[in-house]
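Please review the protein record below. Let me know how this chain folds according to its tokens.
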Amino acid sequence: MLFTALSNDFQSMAVQTYGFPIHSIFSFKWRDLEPQKGKFDWKFFDDQLKITADNNLYVGFMVWVGQFSPEWLYTVDGIPKVMANDKIHEEIPYYPFYLSENYKKDYLNMLHEVGEHIKSLPPSTRNKLLFWMSAEGSTGDITPYKAIPTDPKYNISNQQWFRL
């Protein structure tokens, strides 16, 4: 999992002004949050939010989907794996087919569960939450894939993508 400062310049200013950083951002992978369909593992998520809140830091987070989606999407729900010729991100060469009705249902369920979980956090943690950044597509980009799919039937036009 990723733990990075949102803006190094902003953090430098905060450290100079206050003597310490005042916020952080995390990225969580969907496959780590929901390793089995319907079974969420909140431990790492909660730990990271609690550490920042306990240290009086504000926090924001993203849940990465795309190539960081759980394998059960493909095996249990039959969502097509979209292979892409991505020379930069070769370690994860496939994505879910976002236009699949099962993908849409699973994705919206994950968003719902994250929202419900946030509601269940203690106020001392919840009140330090600045934002939850949407991360559709590969890593929050405005396109579904980092490269062109090898099978043209999985191409998604801009019109289709923005209508989702």
